[in-house]
């Protein structure tokens, strides 16, 4: 996920070789966040998706996603990746409960779950995170686009999401009560 | 919901007139259950939908649904409606947690939520309930049909479900991690 | 709950006699909110409890609580009762998900559940709600007091809470990961 | 957790040295299960706790706990550790939803969270699992004892639980609606 999702600027202490080795031996823990806009009553009105070029130079969409570092709490990891992907002025509101709306299991080979990551076996705790400020994605993200829940759940957008995250996106909408 | 869903055999003490009056003055509390078959690891493999003729003699599909009576616990109500709709040999496994996977708000007029019930304002706590025995729906239900999660989430089945419950069904599949 | 909790200024159309009658015949739907302060990472740092005199003139503590009106969404009811109890400048952040952290079943007689309400059978959907503004309880609430999670979970505070809501408060802290 | 919790008989391919190295560089993913007995309506009536001697030869209590292996689904890991700790005739009913009731973050140093594991940074997804059969713990577990929810939540039992799992146990009881 890091190559196309959230780069880990702090991970220099773990060499690329080391990380590559771990990824073949252990499930790697991730956090993911679906950025949303909410109205005054908390209803999700818009969903923010990141548009990126993946390693095959195809345009794909994704959500905020990144690895949990050794010694780092889930909340710290979530905040770090939100800031990396949405910029320092997004003002994300992390949920009071640490229980994710879904747990996504990514495997190197397809078929075992809806999720796939050719680099690794990753297990991701996924959260819905309202953002109240201005999102300014880093340069490696081409664009952050806001969609209505209906648009976000459409087959076209779902099919553009990498690694099966269209399923995760629909689960996010369902948990917020706005899946069409 | 009672007319096409789960009749309340115990409700004789509340006359039809009284119930009709309450339904115009107060939100009415319901419980709903999505019956499922699970494999040995708890994965949902099939979803059971009730096929009924609604008041317009159209064939529609629904889930187990019924009112909570005065003095009755949610679990008692859930068990009573499961037994009414699936028969005494269904052996439902009620969840350890009383927290529903979703809360559905039915209003007499469409548009406010995905859910609608022309008779009343009803608020329903919805649960996924594995059943391990043999389902034998009462005569007012024409048929109980088992679908794979993929079939259950398909536009055709979703469109056949009454009162917007296709949305609730998809939310159930999402919460179980089997929404396609 | 209304007498000591959240008054319903809009309920004039439902006479006291009518409401009293419904309360003996139907479960009454409530929403409840545990107001909290959170830090920049979403961790609950303080819990707000309302101190009131109950109908026996004893000092008791409670949370935001009130009835859902006919035709009113859960979010509207939640917002209305939060505003009534905490004032117009509390700026509550209603959760993106409509699924409560717990469902409390209040019965007129004790023993069936941890919760009791001598006036009625009430079923309450309970939410944790971060507030970011200034709380200014109405006159019928003597005081809003902020407690640390440790203080809020202490036997003394739990025992001061009316209707068994100390149990609900502990469940709120557990769901936020801050129950000691 | 493995040394005092659930041994991983399949982990021979990962040498002790390798695992020790990973544990200093990456958060390690765990699953944990609170075994419970439920009545016909799904209410938790008893909680099963494992009594073991820890590495200091003190008697401590714990729950089912173990590492997720590379390539293994969460459900497979959960089932494997339940079978290891409770024997092949426990007949655990894994939940339909893969969302845990809580996420426990164990750190080598105390204070950051309620949970501590001197060997590693571990992140555990915790589930309530009803068991319907006969539990026959392996020899390294001295005893499986069933407690009522009241007993399990008592300060004495909570204080006997290793790594801060008394907090996790209380959260389990709260999520099942049976925390006193």
TrEMBL record, chains A, B, C, D:
It comes from the Bacteria. The keyword Metal-binding does not apply. InterPro entries: DUF4916 (IPR032582), NUDIX_hydrolase-like_dom_sf (IPR015797). Keywords: Hydrolase. The keyword Hydrolase applies. One of its GO terms (molecular function) is hydrolase activity. Pfam families: DUF4916. This is NUDIX hydrolase family protein. It comes from Ruicaihuangia caeni.
């Amino acid at each position: 996920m890091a190559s196309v999702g959230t780069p880990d600027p702090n991970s220099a202490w773990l060499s690329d070789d080391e990380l590559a080795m771990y990824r073949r031996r252990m499930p790697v823990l991730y956090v993911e966040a679906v950025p949303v806009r909410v109205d005054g009553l908390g209803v999700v009105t818009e969903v923010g998706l990141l548009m990126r070029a993946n390693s095959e130079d195809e345009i794909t969409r994704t959500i905020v996603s990144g690895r949990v570092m050794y010694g780092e709490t889930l909340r710290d990891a979530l905040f770090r990746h939100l800031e990396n992907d949405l910029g320092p002025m997004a003002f994300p509101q992390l949920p009071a409960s640490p229980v994710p709306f879904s747990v996504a299991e990514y495997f190197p080979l397809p078929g075992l779950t809806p999720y796939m990551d050719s680099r690794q076996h990753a297990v991701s705790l996924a959260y819905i995170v309202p953002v109240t400020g201005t999102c300014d994605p880093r340069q490696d993200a081409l664009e952050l686009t806001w969609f209505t829940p209906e648009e976000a759940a459409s087959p076209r957008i779902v099919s553009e999401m990498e690694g099966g995250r269209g399923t995760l996106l629909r689960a996010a909408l369902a948990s917020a009560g706005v899946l069409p």
